[in-house]
Structures are given as C-alpha cells and as structure tokens.
TrEMBL record:
Residues 194-295 form the HTH araC/xylS-type domain. The lineage of its organism: Bacteria, Pseudomonadati, Bacteroidota, Cytophagia, Cytophagales. Keywords: DNA-binding, Transcription, Transcription regulation. This is Helix-turn-helix domain-containing protein. InterPro entries: Homeodomain-like_sf (IPR009057), HTH_AraC (IPR018060), Tscrpt_reg_AraC-type_HTH (IPR020449). The keyword Transcription applies. GO terms for molecular function: DNA-binding transcription factor activity; sequence-specific DNA binding. SUPFAM superfamilies: Homeodomain-like.
Length: 303
C-alpha cells in the first residue's frame, strides 16, 4: 500500500499543481471535474477534511465504504487508510490537506486530539444542512484566500485558526446530528444493553473476560469513538461507563448470595484482578463490595 509522507508527493502522483505551501494544500472540485486520487488505497502523514456530494463513485475510509449522495464532511487523520475511486460530484466539493508537522508549536497540535470525529468511520460522516454548508464554505474560502496570498509570518496562525473554526463548528453540528437521530440512538442504546446481557448470559465474561468498547462497537457496526460520543449525548455516559454500570448491577445481585466471596464474584464477572473490581465497585456505589455485602446480607436492618 502506498504511503505519502509529503503532500507534494501526493500532488505529483495525481497530476495536481504543486502546493503553494509544502505542509498544506487545497483541492476545490466542481460537478464537471473529477475529484479523485489515482492511488486506490493509501495512507499519509497528514490530516484531510473533505466535503462532497457524491453523484457516483466510491470513497473508502478504513474498511468502510461510503456512497451516500448527501453533502457531508469527512475527517481523516494521519496513517488511516483512504481510498477514493471514480468520484463524480453532484455539486462543488473540496479536499483540504494539512501535514501533522504544520501543527508543531501551535495550540491545535494538542487541541485536534479532542475532536473525536477523526476516529469515526466514513459512514459516520457529518451530514450538513444548507446553512451549515454555508458556514463551512465561508471558512474554506477564508483559508483559500490566505493560502493564495503571499504567505508571511502570520499566515500559518491565520490558516490554523480557520481550520480550528471548521473543527469547532463540526463538533457543534455533530451534536445536532446526534439529537436529530435520537430515535436511532435510542435503538442503539437498547441494542447495546441487549448485547451486554447476552454476553453475560452466555458465560462470555468468564471465557473471554470483560467486554471492551471495541467489541461492543464491532457488534453494532460502529467505530468505538462514534459509539461513545453517541451514547454520551443520549445517556450522559460513555460506552465504557455503561459497561461498568452493567457489571456493577450484576455484582450487586451476586453479592446478595451469602456463600459467594468478593473474589469469586470478581472472577465470575470477568475481572482478572479482584482489587480492581473492588475499586471500581466503590467508585460506582460508594462502599466496598464487602461493606455492601454486610449491609445487605448480614445486617438487612441497616440498609
């Protein structure tokens, strides 16, 4: 698989004019022009923000095929597999590339890691309303103006500030998307709990250990980050927190049995380390498992 360490190399391969800045480039496409890349599948050392309304063609990000015809923003981080093939656009689109080295020494170097959508899959892209499209295009044009100006010591900061604005607005728009898809989210919460219950009932806790967020996301055909963000919006809890809540609920039930020890319950719930189970239990319940057991089994009048 081809890996591009420089944006100039990507441009040369695809016959684009060399970028005016070696650490970033902008490709603006219209419905009459192909907005594609000759390399079927590749990785890079740079970030990509893409806006598109597909008329035809395939955009593959990771192992997920994207073929939706609505206007959307997608976000790709360094060393993630990308594939664009035979893309034809329904309307104008753009590809914005910026190398990870461009962020060195800038606040965005740390801040960009908080934007979880860089870990989403392509089918979890951000679908924009017409007003939201307008906001993104206005910011893109501001970057474009600065990019084509004679660049000076202020250029990088101005460009990165506009990129950060795109990311901030995208975060806001994703919140809207989660809210608008509340019915879908509710079904995912229910399926999430059903998968946990089935995992417990089949004895997978003892055989496979604690279920991971990655496992739960795979069962739901979602990326781990998207699942956690979606659940956080709907329930106020991340996927990992919901897994813990489920396990603690089961632990409370098992602790009611007078003949079971805390260690036995920890192992039954898939914990390899009983002290870790005890710390988690106390964090969620406010008392240790032994204290909970004494209160509810031996001294019920104290409950």
């Amino acid at each position: 698989m081809k890996h591009y360490s420089s944006i100039s190399e990507l441009h040369r391969t695809n016959g684009y004019p060399l970028p005016e800045n070696p650490l970033m480039s902008m490709v603006t496409c219209d419905h009459n022009a192909s907005c594609t890349l000759r390399q079927d599948a590749f990785t890079t050392d740079f970030y990509m923000i893409g806006f598109k309304k597909l008329k035809s063609g395939t955009f593959r990000y990771g192992r997920t095929k994207y073929d939706h015809d609505n206007g959307c923003l997608s976000f790709v981080k360094p060393r993630q597999v990308i594939e664009l093939r035979d893309i034809a656009l329904e309307d104008n689109g753009f590809l914005l590339f910026f190398h990870e080295d461009m962020l060195n020494g800038h606040a965005l170097h740390a801040a960009i890691k908080k934007y979880g959508f860089f870990d989403y899959e392509a089918n979890e892209a951000l679908y924009l309303s017409p007003k939201e499209e307008q906001v993104i295009w206005e910011l893109y044009r501001k970057i474009e103006t600065e990019y084509h100006n004679n660049q000076d010591e202020y250029s990088r900061d101005i460009i990165l500030t506009h990129i950060d604005s795109i990311l901030k607005y995208s975060q806001r728009f994703y919140k809207r998307q989660f809210i608008n898809r509340a019915t879908l989210t509710g079904r995912i919460v229910s399926r999430f709990n059903d998968i946990l219950a089935a995992y417990f009932e089949k004895g997978d806790l003892q055989q496979k250990g604690l279920p991971t967020v990655k496992f739960m996301a795979s069962e739901l055909n979602l990326s781990s980050r998207y699942l956690s963000d979606l659940l956080k919006q709907e329930t106020g809890k991340t996927a990992l927190e919901l897994i813990h809540i489920f396990l603690i609920s089961e632990a409370k039930n098992l602790l009611m049995g007078a003949d079971t020890t805390v260690a036995e319950i920890a192992y039954a719930l898939g914990f390899d380390n009983p002290p870790y189970f005890s710390r988690l239990f106390k964090k969620e319940v406010g008392v240790t498992p032994n204290q909970f057991k004494r209160q509810n089994v031996y001294e019920p009048s104290d409950v």
